[in-house]
Amino acid sequence: MTTNRRTRIAAPDQATVGEVIAIRTLISHPMESGFRRDATGRAIARDILVRFECRFEDQLIFAADLAPGTAANPYLSFHYRAERSGTLHFLWRDQAGVETRDRHALLVL
Hints:
- A hairpin with a 4-residue loop joins strand 7 (86-94) and strand 8 (99-108).
- It contains no helices and 8 strands.
- It has strands spanning 7-10, 14-15, 20-27, 49-56, 59-65, 75-81, 86-94, 99-108.
């Protein structure tokens, strides 16, 4: 199953061959640990993202396993050496297996 959570990708639209580019991602997600309580004292159900992946076409270029201690609206930043034009594919997966996907085209000159 795929969700429509709001994501933000900050990456250049184009780069030169061999250029190291910064890629920054943000996703709107509460990252509830399951330890907090609401105003009536009831436990708030655990709801966390557990995996993030970025692929360039089919090649995995960055991955992170997330834990309950990760802040709400997780922000991730990493670098990638641009060698050819293609598409960056982003995937966030929550504890129930629900996925959020996004993509960003990169033109390498």
